[in-house]
From TrEMBL:
Residue ranges crossing the lipid bilayer per the database entry: 44-61, 83-101, 113-133, 139-163, 175-195, 207-229, 315-336, 348-368, 380-402, 408-433
All residue ranges annotated as the Major facilitator superfamily (MFS) profile domain in the record: 48-438
Protein name: Major facilitator superfamily domain-containing protein
Major site of localization recorded for this protein: membrane
One Pfam family of this chain: MFS_1
Cited SUPFAM superfamilies: MFS general substrate transporter
Organism: Aspergillus keveii
Length: 475
């Protein structure tokens, strides 16, 4: 960036994208038959989705392993009585939420592969240092910085997926990517079980080794992302020149209109448009219906299982089947959607709770990602959704009260209310999107597509984004 301030840069923007050039490039792309097209998409799948999935796996492990550390001795060593544990869990979400939008703005100003590498290194470093804390106050400070470091990764990854896939292809890939969050619960329990055997090694308690070892992994991986993670189809090293043109063209020509180009530059007007879109704020309610329960569940499940009468080590292991079930149901539901005080009983219901909390999440994020344009507005909108939506973690971290164990009436009651609100919000969004589609279709039918198009320049259509009469919302 030059010597201008960021505010000036955002207000004036970089030179506007040339939608006509994008369309010309798309039309000149090499044609591939259906078999070759599937081969190229599989090639993209193997180079993009697993990398993002592994990163999200590590991210979710590092933000939620505090629950495993708690039953591994952290609560006694740091004297986490009363609401102290809840506070340590909560402060993460404060900074995590505040820094989501600025992070995705930086993503648009920098290359995604570089910015995501910075995020990955930062959260790994903070997590590693968390293993050195010796007081409650130190734990809280470390969690605050972990929120700053992790902020932006999820909306950045979700945005990156929209640069590679058509709108009705995104949700399945989003589900595979997000399933890593579910898998994190299983991995975290397994790793915690193994690491507990390191109690006393190097003079450190087992719970400290959980933080240190699970923090070093993302630090190491961050140095590989510049080469592993491709920013867009246009500069993917793993594709041939013809394949790059084809991968880009299939997105430009998805509906035949250039306003869906992803090459727009970040400008203040797009940021304002993202904040002004009421549908994103309604979707936040749907997000809350998942995030309140998810973060409350991940922070409490190991303790809840231990309270059923199991040892700490066995409680770590018994979280694994629950999260494995979540992985299967999350991917299954998303794939289908894209193609239109008895210990045993209590443990069984944990499966149903986890499955219900995780499955709708990918649909919410995909719905908003598909229905925001141009790409700068989408980047900011997804960050807003994640930012405000993840404030549900603040609620979820404080409704499962230790004194109410094992029934947790406040925790489960709050989650039920949030789920009902989420259902209502989802209905409102569907009605709103369908109504807008009908209005646009009527306009084009009554006045004719050519007459409507004649009113706008190509750049004006880019600026209109999803407000363009030619943009169809997905339901």
């Amino acid at each position: 960036m030059d010597n201008k301030s960021m505010a000036d840069h955002l207000e004036e923007g970089s030179p506007p994208a040339d939608p006509k050039a994008d369309l010309d490039a798309a039309q000149s792309a090499t044609s591939f038959d259906e078999v070759e097209e599937k081969r190229i998409i599989r090639k993209i799948d193997w180079h993009i989705v697993p990398v993002l999935g592994v990163l999200y796996l590590m991210s979710f492990i590092d933000r939620s392993n505090i629950g495993n550390a708690k039953i591994a001795g952290m609560d006694e060593d740091l004297d986490l009585d009363g609401m102290r544990y809840n506070t340590a869990v909560t402060v993460f979400f404060v900074t995590y939420s505040l820094f989501e939008v600025p992070s995705n703005i930086m993503l648009k100003l920098w290359r995604p592969s570089v910015w995501i590498a910075v995020i990955c290194f930062s959260w790994g470093l903070v997590m590693t240092l968390m293993g050195l804390v010796n007081s409650y106050e130190g734990l809280v400070i470390a969690r605050i910085f972990l929120g700053v470091a992790e902020a932006g990764f999820f909306p950045a990854a979700a945005y990156l997926l929209t640069l590679w896939y058509k709108r009705f292809e995104v949700q399945t890939r989003m589900a595979i990517f997000y399933a890593a969050a579910s898998l994190a619960g299983a991995f975290s329990g397994l790793l915690a079980f193994a690491i507990e055997n390191m109690d006393g090694v190097g003079g450190l308690a087992a719970w400290k080794w959980i933080f240190i070892l699970e923090g070093l992994v993302p630090v190491v991986i961050s140095f590989t992302l510049y080469w592993l993670l491709a920013d867009s189809p246009e500069n993917a090293r793993f594709l041939t020149e013809d394949e790059r043109r084809f991968a880009a063209s299939r997105l430009y020509t998805e509906t035949g209109y250039t306003e869906q180009s992803n090459s727009d530059r970040i400008q203040m007007k797009y940021i304002k448009a993202a904040f002004a879109d009421w549908k994103t704020w309604v979707a936040v309610v749907c997000f809350w219906s998942c995030s309140i329960g998810i973060y409350g569940f991940t922070a409490t499940a190991p303790t809840a299982i231990k309270q059923l009468g199991y040892t700490s080590a066995n409680a770590q292991l018994m979280t694994i089947p629950i999260y494995t079930f979540v992985v299967i149901t999350t991917i299954g539901v998303a794939t289908w959607s894209d193609r239109p005080d008895l210990p045993g009983v209590t443990y069984f219901f944990l499966f149903l709770i986890a499955g219900g909390l995780f499955c709708p999440f990918t649909s919410i994020v995909t719905l908003i990602g598909n229905n925001l344009a141009p790409s700068s507005k989408r980047a900011v909108g997804l960050a807003i959704l994640a930012s405000v939506g993840n404030m549900g973690g603040i609620c979820g971290s404080n409704i499962y009260l230790a004194r109410q164990a094992p029934q947790y009436p406040v925790g489960y009651g709050t989650c039920l209310g949030a789920c009902v609100a989420g259902i209502v919000a989802a209905i409102v969004l569907r009605i709103a999107y369908a109504s807008e589609n009908k209005r646009k279709a009527a306009l084009l039918r009554d006045e004719g597509e050519e007459a409507v198009r004649a009113r706008y320049s190509e750049q004006e259509l880019v600026d209109l984004g999803d407000k363009s009469p030619f943009f169809e919302y997905t339901l």
